[in-house]
Specification:
The protein has 108 residues and is mainly α. The chain has one domain (2-107). Helices cover 95% and strands 0% of the residues. α1 (2-24) packs antiparallel against α2.
């Protein structure tokens, strides 16, 4: 993507410089020389900007993914704690159930 963006902007700079030089009435050699210089400068600058944007975007996406992963981990831990509490409550109820059944059997 960096290369294609740089090439597109460089070709645009070449075309604009060629047209501007021809409309200004400059000699063809001067127009071509300036157009090539403009193309190289545009290519270099655009690739540098595109590379910087790529690094910024990658850094942002890594931070976003890390925050999503941390949030997900927190939710998974909360669900695990909830499940453990439910299992403990169920175990307590099962321990109490035989006593209640025995009392109900003696009363009946």
């Amino acid at each position: 993507m960096i290369r294609s963006t740089g090439a597109q902007v460089a070709l645009l700079a070449l075309g604009v410089t060629l047209l501007a030089g021809l409309f200004a009435g400059n000699s063809p050699t001067t127009v071509l020389w300036r157009a090539l210089v403009a193309m190289v400068i545009a290519l270099t600058v655009t690739q540098a900007v595109a590379w910087t944007n790529k690094l910024i975007l990658r850094d942002h996406l890594q931070r976003r993914k890390l925050s999503i992963d941390r949030e997900h981990l927190g939710l998974v831990r909360a669900m695990a704690e909830e499940q453990e509490q439910d299992e403990e409550e169920l175990a307590e109820l099962e321990e109490e159930a035989p006593i209640e059944t025995t009392i109900a059997a003696e009363a009946g």
